[in-house]
Amino acid sequence: MNGKGILVTATVVLAWTACCSVARAGSPVLPPGPLMTRVEELTAPDLAGRGAGSPGGRAAGDTVAAWMEQAGLAPLFDGSWFQGFVLHGEGWSGQDLAGREGRNVGGMLQGRGSLAGRWFLVCAHYDHLGRKDPDSTGLPGPEGYYPGANDNASGVAVLMEIATRLAATRDSCADCRSVMVVSFDGEEVGLQGSRYMAEHMPAPLDSLDAVINLDTVGQMPQGKLYVSGVGTTPVFADLAVAAGRQGPELSLAPGGWSGSDHMTFAERRIPVLFLFGGPYPQYNRPADTAGSLSAEALSAVAGYAVRLAGAVRSCPGPLPWTGETREPAGTPPEVAGRHRNTWLGTMPDFTAGISGYMIGGVFDGSPAAAAGLAKGDVITRFGGLEVTDLKTFTTALRTFAPGTPVEITVLRGDRPLNFTVVLGDRSQRR
After folding, report:
1. Pairing verdict, β 178-183 and 119-123
2. What does pTM read for this prediction?
3. Which of 113, 141, 193, 429: disulfide with 186, CB 3.0–4.6 Å?
4. Other CB atoms closer than 10 Å to residue 86's CB: what's the count?
């Protein structure tokens, strides 16, 4: 981050001890009732899948703003809960978004002591895919919209639990950062809300020390919580481990490049932590309902996230960015190919004339299978890197270590789809 430098001093290295004492406090899980109630409210038919720029999306934003006020936050955006921006591009069902308004929803808690002028952002997007038929009206039936319970009503529910707990303990913190609590709009259509906020920050960007992003945390099908970005500043790995001593099994990854709103800030060299429950079978389907979630998993993630956020909020000293965690596009294979054991679990189809990497088959039990990739899909982007053929696919794959969540864009027919995949190790191949 500009103005901080890449300095790892004894102060930074030793600071984690104080942070971790905060992280260990609290229950390993939180009661599921309020969490599930929020998920059910956001997935109700009258919100029709919370599509960006839709009436249901606007109503969802109003609901989140009301929750922030109830939690004891103050409005973040010049006295308003909302930061409006103009959408562009297409929605999930092909509707033209140009000229429609998206709205980020944000609240804040003022810091205290020596850290009061520094900021910490905790966020979760509230938009989802909307209606299957964007021209339909009235209440949709169960198959008429994408409820988005896991993606990402679950993240919003945990976000509000963090906000409530941090607000309740604000007076007990002698030195702690000011906190932005933001629920982004437009994530599903290209991170449009977070990109707008990064360009129109309510506080100077160089005063933002850290970001925690919550996305898809209502299930843990692989039995663990994926926490990526622990290598983006020195103390994050210790904080993440300490917060999890009473919580779910963790899978830690150094990079923070999977496809959600934290990427906007990682690209600006701000340390990020991304909490993700793993690939799940209802992804981007009408079956992603509140009933498909695990109340136990959601509660465990919430307990962990509350402890982690409290630790980051009060961690003393600077939080310097400690380096890029992926190679830029065009990196030669001999440079990027340092992770030769990283495994996706696909076989190539060498059909001529295809731009991208066409999947000829998917191994059972592989990361690709868990995420929902299928034979015939054409991979065009991998972890933010362009894929045009087998060579560029291999370069991109070897850029990331096993255990890293990455976003993969495929063409399925003529439709682009995004999948978050947790990469595996070749030793897992059966």
Report:
1. parallel
2. 0.83
3. 193
4. 13
